[in-house]
Every structure is written in structure tokens, then in C-alpha cells.
User: What shape does this take?
Amino acid sequence: MIRFAHTGYLYALALLPVILVIFYWSLRMRKKNLERFGNLSLLDNLMPAISKYKKSTKFFTAFIAFAFIIFGIANPQIGTKMEEVKRAGVDIMIALDVSNSMKAEDIKPNRLESAKQEISHMLDKFQNDRLGLIVFAGDSYLQLPLTTDYSAARLILSTIDVDVVPIPGTAIGSAIKLAMKSFASGEKKHKVIIIISDGENHEDDAITAAKDALEDGVVVHTVGMGSPDGVPIPVYQNGIQVGFRKDQDGNTVVTKLDEQALRQIAEAGGGMYIRATNQQDELDTIFKDIQTMEKKEFGAKIFTEYEDRFQYFLGIALLLLLIEYFISERKNRWFAKWKFFKERK
Assistant: This one.
């Protein structure tokens, strides 16, 4: 496993394209200034010792050296020893609704993006709990098995959109059943399912699924996304809104938060129902409740020792800077004798 000890220095890489633009601009200005003195071909003959290409060679050598210096300061490290570390926590499966109705904008920027941001904020508070991620619409799919790798969870979370589940609909019961299969069997506690949805369940009996989960010792919480008043679902093309989603008869589809359904699911699962707002702090309440639960011990294999590799990057950078120092902008006398591209008369 590779990591950087000081990731903040990697932001300096953003300077590289700026330096390239400045160098290109300086070459253009130099060319314009030379054109003021006369014909460029004539000036080349008047300055036969000046190389056209060594200036660029010197620049790109220093440019690459600068990139290696940045990586060296960030200190890349390689994991060399992996150990199983005992942790105590709760297994949490988050089931995220990705049906088309989650694109409604009664919560900014929209229901789905707001839910993703809430999950991301919740991850900041995790320490030893294991997290899994399920997406569902007309069917359910496991996106992330239970893990303590929160970086992987963030990465997968960032890629989720309404098109990851090809079957339309909202099958909350299916998501609960898939979450139950994802837990280790034989345990009657330390497990939580968090359903994040607008509650428009049209596919199955989610209440029965929640009751079955509670009988197996799994608590089911629900978070409602949206407004009970109902809003249309905008349709975008190339970032521009072109209208609203319509049904087969050409009528504008209006989606409403079904609080009653989500509340009933939470009650059946022994959990709590919370309605989401633009403050995006609803999962904090659920997280606090999870922290009061009894924890279980489990082993997680992690790298416990890392070796620094900054010296290789700084060594290469130093070598490149030495090469750049000894590169002259004048033509090499020996190569200057061989005019390979000169037109013969």
C-alpha cells in the first residue's frame, strides 16, 4: 500500500500547469521582440551559436525536477508490515435510494446529492465502526461490503447517481433484505440499517422486511428526503434544465415525501425516523444513538509500518537540476559542424 505522509504539499502540483503557461507566454513574447529587430532567419545567421531547443530542454528538465521535489516533500511511503488489529464497533449498512425521484430539488442541491453529503459528513465521525453501502431503486445492489476503509467508501459514494440501478422504482424491502444478507450470520446485535429515501415505495412490503430485521437483532432507521408538498423532477441536458420529467401520458410527474411510510418502517424496525433538511445534520442524531449501542470486537488487517521513499524522488530531482545546470543555451561545437538539415545547393 502506498500513501503520502504530508498530502497537503501535493496541492503544489496545481502550480505546474501555471508554470507551463507562463513559459509558453515568455517564448511568444521573446519571439515577438525578436521580430521587431528584423527577419528571424537573418537573426539566426547573426547568432549562430544560440540554440533554438536548449532553452526548452533546460526548462523541461527543471520542470520535471520541480514535480519530483513536490512528491519528495509529500514523502511517499510504502506499507511493509500488515497486522490484524482488534477493534470494537457496530456494523452499519446504509441503503441509499437512487430512484429518479431523488433528483427533485426540494432539498438543495437535490435529494440525492444532499443525502450523499450527509453520508460523507457522517464518515468524518467514524472510527472503528464498519460501514457498507447499498443502492436501490426497483432493485438493490451492494456497492460496498462492510469495511473500515472509509476512503474507499468516499470514493464509491462520489460515483453514485440515479443511473447506477437500471430498474426504475423504489423497492425499500429489497434493500433491507440485501442488507441482512450482507451482515455476518448468527449474531443478534451490533447491527444497524439506515434507509435514506423519499419513501415512495411501490415495489414490496418494506414494513414486513423491517420487522424481520428487528427479530434478527438489526435496528432499522429511516431518513426522509424531500417535501410532503410535492415537487416536479427537473430534467437537465449538458447542465441546462430543459423541462420536467413526464409520465407516459405527458403529465408532469410530481414526487412527494411519504413520511408515513418511512415512519412505519422505522417503527417496525425498532429505529427512528428523521426528516432531512438543508442543514444536513440529521444523521448526527442517528449516529449518537448508534454510539450508545453495545459494540462488538472484530479484527481488521491494516498496515502498521511504513517506509519512507522521499529520498528517491529528491535524488532524481537533484540529478535533474545538475543536468539542467550544465546544459548551455549555446550550440555544441562538435554537433554544430554537422548540419544535417541544411539544404544543399
In short: Residues 15-37 form the longest helix (23 residues). DSSP finds eleven helices and 13 strands in the chain.
